[in-house]
Amino acid sequence: MIVKLFKNEYEDVLQVALERNENKEKLGIKHYGFSDQYENALACHIRGISAEKVVSKVTGFDLNREISEKGDKGLAIHSDLILPNNKTVEIKMRERGKEFILPSFNPEKFTQDYGILVFATKDPMTFEIVGYITRETFLQNYKRKDFGKGIRCYITREFFLPIEQWSP
Q1: pLDDT at 147
Q2: How far is CA 125 from each of CA 72, 76, 95, 103, 115, rounded to the nearest angstrom?
Q3: What is the pLDDT of residue 45?
């Protein structure tokens, strides 16, 4: 599914990205650039929050604006969207053709109930929502590979279901 952000939605993305980035800078948290080693921390936050925003726009679930001093690891229950049933979701933004990759070799680090994969397009305001998976699907079908920063768990897009079918 192709989704375009409007100017006011993108301005909201920038505001959230600036808040998250400033929080990490205050704490001296270093950006490792997993998705792109040449991308700075703010650009990385903008990309990730853009993905969260397009999924929020399509599903109607609110973007999680909570900011922890320790990033996602500091939240008791991390979820990129706020779901009414307390289920959790991890949204990953990747370049077209890339995989849903965890920043860990341990598959148990995928603790959310759902994962959603979003691809960037050439237009910085347009995105493709690839689909969603359940934690169970991930744990049953993940693979491991070294993407240049150590062994990581990942799953290919063939396991993702259309976002239109998602009803958490």
Answers
A1: 82
A2: 25, 31, 14, 26, 22
A3: 78
Structure tokens at 70: 């320790």
Please tell me the pTM assigned to this model.
0.84
Rounded CA-CA distance 168/160 in Å is: 14
The interaxial angle of helices 7-26 and 41-59, nearest 10 deg, is: 130
Six-digit token pair at 31?
């950006």
Token couple for 12: 């909201």
The answer on pLDDT for 71 being more than 60 is no
CA angle (137 as vertex; 132, 139 as ends), nearest 5: 125
CB atoms within 10 A of CB 82: 15
| Model confidence pLDDT, tens digit, residues 116-159 | 999 988 888 899 999 999 999 999 999 999 988 889 999 999 99
Report whether pLDDT(38) > 50. no
